[in-house]
Design brief:
Elements lengths: L22 H18 L11 H14 L2
Amino acid sequence: MTARTHTGAQVRRTGVDTRLPWWALALPVAAFAALFLLVTGSSDAPAAAGDPGVGRFLAHLQQTLSP
C-alpha cells in the first residue's frame, strides 16, 4: 500500500511575516554596548591592577608557548 504525497498545488501558503520589529535588534545591540563599555572602562578601578603573580604566570606561559 502506498501513501499519497502532497503536490505543490495542494499546499497552502499562510504568508507569515518574517520581519522583526526595530527593538528586536536595538535591545541586544544596546545590551552588548553597555557590557562592552563596562569591561573596557574598568581600568580605573583600584582592583584592576590585579595580582602580579597572574602577570608573571601569563608571561611565563607566553615564553613557554613561543617557538
